[in-house]
Design a protein that fits this description.
single chain; 219 residues; alpha/beta; Methyltransferase, Methionine Synthase (B12-binding Domains), Chain A, domain 1; Rossmann fold; five-stranded parallel β-sheet; 9 helices; 5 strands; 11% strand; globular; binds cobalamin
Length: 219
């Protein structure tokens, strides 16, 4: 099987929630030196399909939980392959977390691992983080960038509140750039809630953060 056919196969076994085949195939693809970004993109597409099956009533919450566990395992396998040689150069501090009411953390964890692998100092506040806690930790950690993860539409009011509170904080400390990310998040949300940037994927995030640190906010 060539790489594209194997990636397609990975998509199929992930959508079927076949845990053993998913782990075996991920290891096989890594052995064949297929780029982690391709594996990750395939998995994100498979998770979108699983989400659709959940919406259609074909899968239940147990399906989402299994998908989450499989994705965690894939992240573990991919993480050692994400490190770049010059990662020991400290590029900046980034505070990340999932907004209040939302416990989705796979995307945030992948982005955190990738940012660390690229030399950023990452402080991850975890999931279900209140606006108050984001502000409190930002005042202590003094990040150049704050990344908010949000997947649940019902929690977007909390996303809006968090961005507003973080922007108010700008008068008190060095101005951090605020960006938002998550499967449902688009540039429209960025404009609506007043974030500085929107990142479509973990790899996008790294490029974006490198650019923000190099040029500073607003350039
Ligand atoms: C797995 C999953 C779960 C797992 C999460 C496990 C975990 N540890 O995260 C569990 C079972 C807990 C779960 C629960 C629920 N879920 Co859910 N879940 C999903 C699913 C299938 C995949 C999400 C995922 O991990 N994707 C893979 C990652 C890698 O992608 P990603 O998050 O987009 O992240 C990438 C980028 O966005 C970016 N990124 C993301 N975050 C961040 C953060 C930072 C700082 C940075 C830098 C970058 C970054 O980088 C990542 C890598 O490229 C999605 C479907 C979908 N389309 O996303 C539904 C989905 C998000 N869930 C949904 C729902 C409804 C729920 C529940 C309400 C179900 C229920 N009835 O209980 C609960 C809510 C729980 C809560 N309070 O949060 C809906 C949301 C619909 C909506 N519009 O609001 C979705 C879209 C499914 C659907 N189509 O209906 N879920």
């Amino acid at each position: 099987m060539n790489d594209q056919a194997s990636l397609r196969h990975l998509w199929e076994v992930l959508v079927k929630l076949d845990e053993v085949a998913v782990a075996d195939l991920t290891l096989e693809l890594l052995d064949r030196e297929v780029e982690p970004v391709e594996i990750l993109t395939t998995c994100e597409q498979a998770l979108t399909s699983i989400g659709e099956k959940y919406e259609d009533g074909e899968y239940f919450i147990s399906g989402l939980i299994m998908a989450g566990e499989m994705m965690s395992r894939i992240t573990e396998l991919l993480t050692p392959h994400l490190v770049i040689p010059e990662a020991d150069i400290l590029r900046g501090r980034i505070l990340i977390g999932t907004i209040e009411g939302d416990i989705h953390d796979l995307g945030k964890n992948i982005a955190g691992a990738l940012l660390s692998a690229h030399g950023f100092q990452v402080l991850d506040l975890g999931v279900d983080v209140s606006a108050t806690d984001f502000v409190k930790e930002a005042l202590i950690f003094k990040p150049e960038i704050i990344g908010l993860s949000a997947l649940l539409g019902s929690c977007f009011p909390a996303l809006s509140k968090t961005i507003t509170r973080l922007k108010e904080m700008r008068g008190m400390t060095k101005i951090p750039a605020i960006f938002i990310s998550g499967a449902q998040i688009t540039d429209e949300h960025r404009k609506l809630y007043g974030a500085d940037f929107q990142a479509a994927s973990a790899f996008d995030t790294v490029r974006l953060c490198e650019k923000i640190i190099r040029r500073g906010l607003g350039d």
